[in-house]
Protein backbone atom coordinates (compact mmCIF):
# COMPACT_ATOMS: atom_id res chain seq x y z
CA UNK A 1 0.00 0.00 0.00
CA UNK A 2 2.90 2.37 0.84
CA UNK A 3 4.51 1.58 -2.53
CA UNK A 4 1.28 2.41 -4.39
CA UNK A 5 0.82 5.69 -2.50
CA UNK A 6 4.44 6.62 -3.12
CA UNK A 7 4.07 5.82 -6.82
CA UNK A 8 0.88 7.91 -7.03
CA UNK A 9 2.59 10.88 -5.41
CA UNK A 10 5.56 10.50 -7.74
CA UNK A 11 3.20 10.32 -10.73
CA UNK A 12 1.41 13.50 -9.61
CA UNK A 13 4.69 15.35 -9.23
CA UNK A 14 5.91 14.22 -12.64
CA UNK A 15 2.62 15.23 -14.29
CA UNK A 16 2.77 18.65 -12.64
CA UNK A 17 6.36 19.06 -13.76
CA UNK A 18 5.52 18.14 -17.36
CA UNK A 19 2.55 20.52 -17.38
CA UNK A 20 4.71 23.30 -16.03
CA UNK A 21 7.31 22.61 -18.72
CA UNK A 22 4.66 22.74 -21.42
CA UNK A 23 3.70 26.30 -20.58
CA UNK A 24 3.37 28.83 -17.82
CA UNK A 25 0.14 29.98 -16.22
CA UNK A 26 -2.49 32.09 -18.19
CA UNK A 27 -6.32 32.77 -17.99
CA UNK A 28 -8.55 29.75 -18.84
CA UNK A 29 -10.12 26.67 -17.25
CA UNK A 30 -9.92 23.15 -18.69
CA UNK A 31 -12.00 20.12 -17.71
CA UNK A 32 -10.86 16.67 -18.89
CA UNK A 33 -13.05 13.55 -19.14
CA UNK A 34 -12.06 9.95 -19.95
CA UNK A 35 -13.64 6.50 -19.42
CA UNK A 36 -12.75 5.00 -16.03
CA UNK A 37 -12.39 1.39 -17.23
CA UNK A 38 -11.60 -0.45 -20.43
CA UNK A 39 -11.19 -4.21 -20.91
CA UNK A 40 -9.82 -5.93 -24.03
CA UNK A 41 -8.57 -9.30 -25.23
CA UNK A 42 -4.82 -9.76 -25.58
CA UNK A 43 -5.29 -10.99 -29.17
CA UNK A 44 -6.72 -7.60 -30.16
CA UNK A 45 -4.29 -5.74 -32.41
CA UNK A 46 -4.91 -2.27 -30.97
CA UNK A 47 -7.09 -0.46 -28.44
CA UNK A 48 -7.98 3.25 -28.42
CA UNK A 49 -8.58 5.30 -25.26
CA UNK A 50 -10.75 8.36 -25.81
CA UNK A 51 -10.26 11.65 -23.98
CA UNK A 52 -12.62 14.64 -24.25
CA UNK A 53 -12.26 18.07 -22.72
CA UNK A 54 -14.08 21.38 -22.38
CA UNK A 55 -12.64 24.86 -22.05
CA UNK A 56 -13.77 28.16 -20.58
CA UNK A 57 -12.03 31.44 -21.39
CA UNK A 58 -9.10 29.75 -23.11
CA UNK A 59 -7.13 31.07 -26.10
CA UNK A 60 -8.41 30.26 -29.57
CA UNK A 61 -5.66 27.77 -30.26
CA UNK A 62 -5.33 24.01 -30.37
CA UNK A 63 -4.29 22.74 -26.93
CA UNK A 64 -1.54 20.25 -26.44
CA UNK A 65 -2.44 16.74 -25.34
CA UNK A 66 -0.18 14.68 -23.11
CA UNK A 67 -0.50 11.08 -22.00
CA UNK A 68 0.89 9.38 -18.91
CA UNK A 69 0.88 5.74 -17.88
CA UNK A 70 1.11 4.36 -14.37
CA UNK A 71 1.88 0.64 -14.40
CA UNK A 72 3.32 -1.91 -11.98
CA UNK A 73 6.87 -0.57 -12.20
CA UNK A 74 7.02 3.23 -12.50
CA UNK A 75 5.15 6.14 -14.10
CA UNK A 76 5.85 6.82 -17.76
CA UNK A 77 5.47 9.90 -19.95
CA UNK A 78 3.97 8.83 -23.27
CA UNK A 79 4.09 10.56 -26.62
CA UNK A 80 5.76 13.83 -25.68
CA UNK A 81 6.84 14.06 -29.30
CA UNK A 82 3.36 13.31 -30.71
CA UNK A 83 3.62 9.55 -31.46
CA UNK A 84 1.83 9.87 -34.78
CA UNK A 85 3.54 7.00 -36.59
CA UNK A 86 1.60 3.73 -36.82
CA UNK A 87 4.85 1.84 -36.30
CA UNK A 88 5.13 3.27 -32.78
CA UNK A 89 3.79 1.46 -29.75
CA UNK A 90 1.45 4.40 -29.07
CA UNK A 91 -0.36 6.74 -31.47
CA UNK A 92 -1.99 10.04 -30.51
CA UNK A 93 -4.87 11.27 -32.64
CA UNK A 94 -7.67 13.86 -32.78
CA UNK A 95 -11.00 12.19 -33.50
CA UNK A 96 -13.21 15.29 -33.14
CA UNK A 97 -13.28 18.82 -31.77
CA UNK A 98 -12.30 18.90 -28.10
CA UNK A 99 -11.52 15.18 -28.25
CA UNK A 100 -8.19 13.38 -28.47
CA UNK A 101 -7.25 9.72 -28.27
CA UNK A 102 -4.38 7.40 -27.47
CA UNK A 103 -4.07 4.13 -29.42
CA UNK A 104 -2.08 1.28 -27.91
CA UNK A 105 -0.73 -0.81 -30.79
CA UNK A 106 0.27 -4.49 -30.62
CA UNK A 107 -1.64 -5.03 -27.37
CA UNK A 108 0.15 -7.22 -24.84
CA UNK A 109 -0.65 -8.41 -21.32
CA UNK A 110 1.87 -5.99 -19.79
CA UNK A 111 -0.06 -3.06 -21.31
CA UNK A 112 -2.50 -3.27 -18.41
CA UNK A 113 -2.08 0.04 -16.55
CA UNK A 114 -3.71 3.37 -15.71
CA UNK A 115 -3.62 5.77 -18.67
CA UNK A 116 -4.02 9.47 -17.85
CA UNK A 117 -4.89 12.16 -20.37
CA UNK A 118 -3.58 15.71 -19.92
CA UNK A 119 -4.68 18.87 -21.77
CA UNK A 120 -2.65 22.08 -21.66
CA UNK A 121 -2.76 25.55 -23.21
CA UNK A 122 0.91 26.60 -23.22
CA UNK A 123 0.18 30.29 -23.77
CA UNK A 124 -2.22 30.59 -20.83
CA UNK A 125 -1.01 31.84 -17.45
CA UNK A 126 -3.88 30.32 -15.49
CA UNK A 127 -3.06 27.17 -13.45
CA UNK A 128 -6.38 25.55 -14.46
CA UNK A 129 -5.37 25.84 -18.11
CA UNK A 130 -3.43 22.60 -17.65
CA UNK A 131 -5.53 19.71 -16.33
CA UNK A 132 -5.54 15.89 -16.33
CA UNK A 133 -8.39 13.37 -16.40
CA UNK A 134 -9.18 10.82 -13.73
CA UNK A 135 -7.38 8.07 -15.64
CA UNK A 136 -8.55 5.02 -17.58
CA UNK A 137 -7.81 1.59 -16.15
CA UNK A 138 -6.90 -0.62 -19.11
CA UNK A 139 -7.15 -4.35 -18.41
CA UNK A 140 -5.74 -6.77 -20.99
CA UNK A 141 -7.21 -10.23 -20.46
CA UNK A 142 -5.55 -13.49 -21.44
CA UNK A 143 -8.96 -14.97 -22.29
CA UNK A 144 -11.15 -13.61 -25.05
CA UNK A 145 -13.63 -10.99 -23.91
CA UNK A 146 -17.16 -11.31 -25.28
CA UNK A 147 -18.71 -8.30 -26.94
CA UNK A 148 -21.65 -6.53 -25.30
CA UNK A 149 -23.98 -7.75 -28.05
CA UNK A 150 -22.91 -11.36 -27.54
CA UNK A 151 -23.20 -11.00 -23.76
CA UNK A 152 -26.73 -9.62 -24.16
CA UNK A 153 -27.61 -12.48 -26.52
CA UNK A 154 -26.28 -15.09 -24.09
CA UNK A 155 -28.16 -13.43 -21.23
CA UNK A 156 -31.40 -13.51 -23.24
CA UNK A 157 -30.84 -17.17 -24.17
CA UNK A 158 -30.17 -18.12 -20.55
CA UNK A 159 -33.31 -16.26 -19.45
CA UNK A 160 -35.46 -18.05 -22.05
CA UNK A 161 -33.89 -21.38 -21.09
CA UNK A 162 -34.67 -20.72 -17.43
CA UNK A 163 -38.29 -19.87 -18.27
CA UNK A 164 -38.55 -23.05 -20.41
CA UNK A 165 -37.15 -25.23 -17.62
CA UNK A 166 -39.53 -23.69 -15.08
CA UNK A 167 -42.47 -24.25 -17.45
CA UNK A 168 -41.50 -27.90 -18.00
CA UNK A 169 -41.21 -28.45 -14.25
CA UNK A 170 -44.64 -26.90 -13.65
CA UNK A 171 -46.23 -29.08 -16.36
CA UNK A 172 -44.48 -32.16 -14.94
CA UNK A 173 -45.78 -31.42 -11.44
CA UNK A 174 -49.34 -30.88 -12.75
CA UNK A 175 -49.25 -34.11 -14.79
CA UNK A 176 -47.82 -36.04 -11.85
CA UNK A 177 -50.57 -34.81 -9.53
CA UNK A 178 -53.25 -35.55 -12.15
CA UNK A 179 -51.87 -39.05 -12.72
CA UNK A 180 -51.71 -39.66 -8.99
CA UNK A 181 -55.34 -38.61 -8.59
CA UNK A 182 -56.37 -40.89 -11.49
CA UNK A 183 -54.51 -43.84 -9.97
CA UNK A 184 -56.09 -43.25 -6.57
CA UNK A 185 -59.53 -43.01 -8.16
CA UNK A 186 -58.95 -46.23 -10.11
CA UNK A 187 -57.69 -48.00 -7.00
CA UNK A 188 -60.79 -46.84 -5.13
CA UNK A 189 -63.08 -48.13 -7.89
CA UNK A 190 -61.22 -51.47 -8.04
CA UNK A 191 -61.44 -51.78 -4.28
CA UNK A 192 -65.17 -51.11 -4.37
CA UNK A 193 -65.62 -53.68 -7.14
CA UNK A 194 -63.66 -56.28 -5.17
CA UNK A 195 -65.73 -55.56 -2.09
CA UNK A 196 -68.92 -55.88 -4.12
CA UNK A 197 -67.82 -59.23 -5.62
CA UNK A 198 -66.74 -60.48 -2.20
CA UNK A 199 -70.08 -59.49 -0.73
CA UNK A 200 -71.91 -61.38 -3.50
CA UNK A 201 -69.84 -64.51 -2.87
CA UNK A 202 -70.43 -64.18 0.84
CA UNK A 203 -74.18 -63.90 0.29
CA UNK A 204 -74.16 -66.96 -2.03
CA UNK A 205 -72.08 -68.94 0.45
CA UNK A 206 -74.35 -67.92 3.29
CA UNK A 207 -77.42 -68.95 1.29
CA UNK A 208 -75.92 -72.33 0.42
CA UNK A 209 -74.93 -72.82 4.04
CA UNK A 210 -78.47 -72.00 5.16
CA UNK A 211 -79.99 -74.45 2.67
CA UNK A 212 -77.62 -77.20 3.78
CA UNK A 213 -78.55 -76.63 7.41
CA UNK A 214 -82.21 -76.81 6.56
CA UNK A 215 -81.77 -80.12 4.73
CA UNK A 216 -79.72 -81.50 7.60
CA UNK A 217 -82.40 -80.58 10.08
CA UNK A 218 -85.23 -82.13 8.00
CA UNK A 219 -83.49 -85.50 7.37
CA UNK A 220 -83.50 -86.80 11.01
CA UNK A 221 -87.12 -85.79 11.37
CA UNK A 222 -88.12 -87.94 8.39
CA UNK A 223 -86.19 -90.90 9.76
CA UNK A 224 -87.89 -90.67 13.16
CA UNK A 225 -91.30 -90.58 11.56
CA UNK A 226 -90.54 -93.67 9.54
CA UNK A 227 -89.28 -95.55 12.61
CA UNK A 228 -92.28 -94.52 14.70
CA UNK A 229 -94.70 -95.72 12.03
CA UNK A 230 -92.86 -99.04 11.80
CA UNK A 231 -93.02 -99.52 15.55
CA UNK A 232 -96.76 -98.84 15.60
CA UNK A 233 -97.27 -101.31 12.75
CA UNK A 234 -95.40 -104.00 14.64
CA UNK A 235 -97.34 -103.30 17.81
CA UNK A 236 -100.72 -103.59 16.08
CA UNK A 237 -99.81 -106.86 14.35
CA UNK A 238 -101.25 -109.90 16.48
TrEMBL record:
Coiled-coil ranges per UniProt: none
Domain Ig-like: residue ranges: 45-117
Keywords: Membrane, Transmembrane, Transmembrane helix
Residues passing through the membrane, by range: 12-33, 153-176
Keyword Transmembrane helix: yes
Keyword Transmembrane assigned: yes
Superkingdom of this protein's organism: Eukaryota
PROSITE patterns: IG_LIKE (PS50835)
A matching Pfam family: V-set
Region Disordered: start-end pairs: 213-238
Organism: Sus scrofa (Pig)
The name this protein goes by in its record: Immunoglobulin superfamily member 6
Amino acid sequence: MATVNGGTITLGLEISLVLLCVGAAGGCTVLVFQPPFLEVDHTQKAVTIQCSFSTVGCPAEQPRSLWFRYGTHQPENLCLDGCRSETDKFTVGTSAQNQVSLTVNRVALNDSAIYICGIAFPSSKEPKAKQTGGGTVLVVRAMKVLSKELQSLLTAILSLLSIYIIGVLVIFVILTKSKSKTLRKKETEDSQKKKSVRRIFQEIAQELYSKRNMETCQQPEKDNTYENRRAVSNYERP
